[in-house]
Amino acid sequence: MSAPVKVAVVGASGYSGAELLRLLLRHPNVELVAVTSRSLAGKALSKEFPRFRGVGVADSLTFTAPDAAALKAAGAEIAFLAVPHGVAAEYAKPLLELGLKVIDLSADFRLRSPALYEEFYGHAHPAPELLDEAVYALPEVRAEQIKTARLIACPGCYPTSILLPLIPLLKAGLLADTPLAVASMSGASGAGRKESIPLLFCEVQNSVRSYSVPVHRHLSEIGQELALAAGREVKLSFVPHLMPTHSGICTTTFAQLKTGVTLEQISAALHSAYDKAPFVRLLGVNQSPDTKNVTGTNFVDIGWSYDARAGQLILMSTEDNIGKGASGQAVQNMNLICGFEATAGLLNI
């Protein structure tokens, strides 16, 4: 058995960072050598996250202030960045210069265009010179590119749930050129671990509400990837909703089929794309996925149907927003980079 890969997590105090720690502490091929958080420096992992007591190095490894040279000195070969957009690029540049591979969970390297980034994120891109080499790392779509990349841009949570059902259909030319309509619901953890009145328990409990209408930041990467799959611009309306759960995403997409396209062709395209994808579970026609079956896992469940009265294809998907939508997918990408089994450390149910 080869030596385990040594990894570090930058920004390990948030929800995605904590999920990364949970997965990496139990991964059979990983040695966790460093975790960073300015606010938690000097504190043991298991003191901040008691659920990790007695697991691996959680009792002995302490948070440190983020410093690229210190991570290199600790022996890290791969660094996961679980920090906000605009901040990740500041760490990515020196880490890459020191020879580490970087897996970024933020939005900093998802877009190919610096102008598009500035339009959607409100400031100039901090490292535009790295955008061309960054790989938008949807493992089911770009596995070969991911294997040789040194800078990985993990897709966002909503985009993952939207892109996986749509990309095979657009590549096969099965959908009409009419605009798509997408409605997604996410648990409150998607907003991050922060003090915010709209995210207090009493504000979220017994409440479902839309937000960021009509333009959510994730529209930028969704549009980019759909256009690449279709070979043309793909217009869509996207309405995200906050639901009173910790985690989980439920997405429903409405699209029109090209004239003469059948539901059997839709099924065939999805099966051709994903029958060998270990984390995509195709439920079949008229089967509705449920978030309770994917939370805490790296699976995405997909169902589909056709509404003959309205002439609409209905695509349904569920995932865990901090699992397949963030940390689980990041570990899945690490497995590809390192040549590990695709499912290593990720078969949690």
Automatic annotation (TrEMBL):
Its EC number is 1.2.1.38. It is found in: Cytoplasm. One of its GO terms (molecular function) is N-acetyl-gamma-glutamyl-phosphate reductase activity. Pathway: Amino-acid biosynthesis; L-arginine biosynthesis; N(2)-acetyl-L-ornithine from L-glutamate: step 3/4. Residues 6-149 form the Semialdehyde dehydrogenase NAD-binding domain. The keyword Transferase does not apply. InterPro entries: AGPR, AGPR_AS, AGPR_dimerisation_dom, AGPR_type-1, NAD(P)-bd_dom_sf, Semialdehyde_DH_NAD-bd. It catalyses: N-acetyl-L-glutamate 5-semialdehyde + phosphate + NADP(+) = N-acetyl-L-glutamyl 5-phosphate + NADPH + H(+). The active site is at 157. GO terms for cellular component: cytoplasm. SUPFAM superfamilies: Glyceraldehyde-3-phosphate dehydrogenase-like, C-terminal domain, NAD(P)-binding Rossmann-fold domains. Keywords: Amino-acid biosynthesis, Arginine biosynthesis, Cytoplasm, NADP, Oxidoreductase. Its main location: cytoplasm. It is an enzyme of class 1 (oxidoreductase). Catalyzes the NADPH-dependent reduction of N-acetyl-5-glutamyl phosphate to yield N-acetyl-L-glutamate 5-semialdehyde. Belongs to the NAGSA dehydrogenase family. Type 1 subfamily. This is N-acetyl-gamma-glutamyl-phosphate reductase. The lineage of its organism: Bacteria, Pseudomonadati, Verrucomicrobiota, Verrucomicrobiia, Verrucomicrobiales.
